């Protein structure tokens, strides 16, 4: 027997899961939850439809009915997050340790097999901005796990992280890197068997909508997630077919987009799209720019200066916050604060002036001047960890170990929140390891060495 369910039906599922977790977290009773969900949503009843699907396959070349339903058969694969405890006690620091050790499979039993399939399909051979496609997919997944697990628990963090891991595997409105064929029912069945039906449905949906139009031109433009959700066209079917996205699904889309942009964006894209040449009006993040300002000859990777994406992501965070029944990323003080473009540019340029200084042999007076520059940089943009790492080193250089300890601790805390670097000249694990060296030395009241061999040979952090 085959049934039709609307996307609204899945959004209902997501809304229910979000509300149940929220209720458990805040002490809402089952009766309260039942009353709330029944009054705020309408159940979608299944209606029989015609399809060529069989018991163990799905027909995805479906014909939509007038109410925009699509055909689907029940999956035998059980969503693995559903049998876990939602209130598992694990800190963000513990999650980070697991991820840095390359053991993400400890956090989700579907992870290792999914990554193995991505490798079999060549994800590690595909170029993607500042890394390869596999690194980007795993990086986004890791960040979403860091953001969601401590607050939302296993079920929702698994959903977010699995969406991140395969978010462009069917290709999308931005780039064609299809590793799985969305028109092939066997391919979609395989993805469902890897990560579960719920996550696959979200991934398939996100690859069939115009994310730029929804996220930037609608949600970001109006600064909110509409309570009634959005009706959007299906990319593959054209404007004749609309899909309804519930607010819970829109928040997931916004949160995922935050991680997606943050992981991949760096200074080369600002040069490529003519940010400096245009006086700050052009950006990859806002495609309606003046294309005459593009500089397609920009050499990759360029200087790899930090990209100007933080203010954009902080604005997305503010949008995510308008859906009050969901869980928020910990960055920007759980979306309470925002960063202006002007402050971001000033802070980035101050940071870059310090790390690219031609003064290789500074004296103490120069060190204090650098500290003041970095303090101003941090006051303008306190949301990224690299300026704290730099100022911790400068405090070491002038013998102020308590300040070095404080700054390195702030850097470590921000590293736990992001899971990737703003300054992408080095990988994230290198930044964390170096920051831990600084924090260990400051905690032990160890002065900065005068012997360069000793600095070069910094090693194990206990």
Low-confidence stretches: 1-13, 19-87
Strands in their spatial order, largest beta sheet: 2-1-3
Radius of gyration: 24 Å
List SSEs in N-to-C order: EHHEEHHEEHHHHHEEHHHHHHHHHH
Given the structure, what is the number of helices? 19
Helix content: 40-55%
How far apart lie the N and C ends?
59 Å
Annotated CATH topology of the domain at 355-462: Serine Threonine Protein Phosphatase 5, Tetratricopeptide repeat
Task: Let me know the average pLDDT.
Answer: 81
Description:
It is a single chain. By secondary structure, the protein is mostly helical. Among the domains are: 74 residues, no CATH class; 108 residues, Tetratricopeptide repeat domain (Serine Threonine Protein Phosphatase 5, Tetratricopeptide repeat). Helix content is 52%, strand content 5%. It contains 19 helices and seven strands. The strands form three sheets. The protein has a three-stranded antiparallel beta sheet. A two-stranded antiparallel sheet has the order 4-5. Strand 4 and strand 5 form a beta hairpin. The longest helix is centred in the first third of the chain and has 20 residues. The protein starts with a strand and ends in a 6-residue tail after the last helix. The N terminus is likely disordered.
């Amino acid at each position: 027997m085959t049934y039709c369910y609307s996307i609204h039906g899945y959004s209902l599922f997501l809304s229910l899961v979000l509300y149940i977790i929220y209720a458990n977290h805040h002490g809402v009773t089952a009766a309260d939850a039942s009353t709330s969900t029944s009054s705020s949503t309408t159940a979608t009843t299944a209606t029989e439809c015609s399809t060529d699907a069989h018991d163990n396959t799905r027909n995805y070349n479906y014909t939509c009915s007038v109410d925009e339903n699509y055909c689907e058969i029940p999956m035998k694969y059980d969503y693995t997050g559903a049998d876990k405890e939602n209130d598992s006690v694990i800190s963000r620091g513990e999650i980070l340790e697991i991820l840095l050790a390359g053991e993400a499979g400890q956090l989700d039993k579907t992870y290792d097999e999914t990554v193995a399939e991505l490798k079999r399909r060549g994800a590690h051979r595909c170029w993607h901005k500042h890394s390869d496609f596999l690194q980007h997919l795993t990086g986004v997944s890791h960040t979403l796990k860091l953001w969601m697990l401590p607050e939302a628990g296993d079920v929702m963090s698994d959903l977010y992280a699995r969406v991140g891991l395969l978010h462009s595997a069917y290709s999308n409105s931005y780039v064609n890197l299809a590793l799985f064929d969305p028109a092939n029912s066997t391919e979609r069945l395989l993805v469902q068997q890897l990560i579960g039906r719920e996550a696959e449905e979200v991934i398939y949906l996100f690859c069939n909508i115009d994310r730029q139009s929804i996220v930037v031109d609608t949600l970001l433009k109006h600064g909110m997630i509409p309570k009634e959700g959005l009706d959007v066209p299906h990319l593959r079917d054209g404007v004749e077919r609309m899909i309804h996205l519930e607010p819970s699904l829109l928040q997931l889309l916004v949160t995922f987009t935050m991680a997606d942009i943050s992981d991949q964006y760096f200074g080369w894209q600002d040069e490529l799209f003519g940010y400096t040449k245009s006086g700050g009006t052009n950006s990859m993040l806002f495609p309606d720019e003046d294309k005459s300002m593009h500089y397609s000859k920009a050499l990759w990777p360029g200087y790899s200066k930090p990209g100007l994406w933080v203010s954009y992501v902080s604005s997305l965070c503010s949008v995510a916050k308008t859906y009050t029944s969901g869980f928020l990323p910990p960055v920007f003080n759980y979306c309470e604060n925002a960063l202006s473009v002007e402050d971001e540019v000033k802070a980035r340029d101050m940071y870059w002036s310090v790390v690219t200084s031609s003064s290789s042999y500074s004296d103490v007076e120069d060190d204090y001047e650098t500290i003041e520059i970095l303090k101003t940089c941090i006051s303008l943009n306190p949301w990224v960890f690299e300026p704290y790492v730099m100022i911790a080193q400068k405090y070491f250089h002038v013998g102020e170990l308590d300040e070095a300890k404080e700054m390195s601790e702030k850097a470590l805390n921000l590293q736990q929140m992001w899971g990737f670097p703003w300054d992408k000249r080095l990988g994230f694990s290198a930044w964390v390891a170096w920051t831990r060296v600084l924090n260990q030395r400051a905690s032990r009241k160890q002065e900065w060495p005068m012997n360069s061999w000793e600095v070069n040979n910094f090693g194990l952090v206990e």
